[in-house]
Amino acid sequence: MGPNDATHPTTSPRIDELEALAREGRWHVINTVTASKAGHVGGPLSAMDLLVALYFAQLRVDPENPDDPGRDRFILSKGHNAIGLYSVLAMRGFFPVDELATFDHGDSRLQGHPDMRLTPGVDASTGSLGQGLSAGAGMALGAKRLGSDNHVWVMLGDGEMEEGMVWETVLSAPRYRLDNLTAIIDLNGLQQYGWPATDDDRFDRSEPLGHVDLAAVFAGFGWHVLEIDGHDFDEILDAFNTVTEARDRDGRPSVILATTSKGRGISFTEGTYAWHNGVATPEQLAQARLDLKQEQA
Ligand SMILES: Cc1ncc(C[n+]2csc(CCOP(=O)(O)OP(=O)(O)O)c2C)c(N)n1
């Protein structure tokens, strides 16, 4: 394998195939967290369609050669969603799907937050919120300096956007004309807890960024902004195409503001921060299997 062997997925998957993969990925999330009795649920479920679209329709990566220097990079800045990333990496062939059963065990390659030293396909260690976009900007700058055409993708949570370090990179990335950098914000409207009650109606109790016009703010800093439904594969793939076509980027980094639903796809997890993390009962797991149209094992 040479340095530029990482390739885009060879065939363009059909939308119904991506939807089936996303249902399977969501099943791995709830099933694995339940078995391990630890881990996050709501965020990995909201991000799943975006992760499936990245790994099955966009990223130039080679599961046989995960450290290929010619690969695109992906950073899961909201590292507590690790089980979502591991599920997709396993389905894409970076390691056996059975290995998901070791999630969060002390001697596992699949720790509760991504560890780039342990897990094939993980490009950055994350978990302390706010740091991934800076790391991604560094990678994108490095690629530019080396004359490489790698694209760097960073996924952040909307709660995570409250971290100040994110905004230092939002300010500086256009200065370096990092049009090979794309941030995806998973706007699921919830974080770990609700907001404390307040009389000030500018602050919605549930939405981390409900009072901010994110599109205007990013555009003001010089970013190329796209707003999509993060559960609609047509819109997701269109956005990916747009941000990777140089003529549309004009030296600007891109941000995809993806509206999603926390806990998406499972009837009892969707729309509640109570399922930010949690372990399902056997009855709930059976319900999740039905919701996700997975066959009985
Ligand atoms: C610096 C830092 N502060 C606090 C936490 C604890 N924490 C873990 S997840 C989370 C909420 C994140 O919300 P969001 O980014 O919206 O994630 P999602 O809903 O997509 O899972 C917090 C505060 C952390 N991991 N890092």
From TrEMBL:
Pfam families: Transketolase_N. Keywords: Thiamine pyrophosphate. Residues 22-289 form the Transketolase N-terminal domain. Its cofactor is thiamine diphosphate. PANTHER family: TRANSKETOLASE N-TERMINAL SECTION-RELATED (PTHR47514:SF1). Belongs to the transketolase family. This is Transketolase. It comes from Gulosibacter sediminis. The lineage of its organism: Bacteria, Bacillati, Actinomycetota, Actinomycetes, Micrococcales.
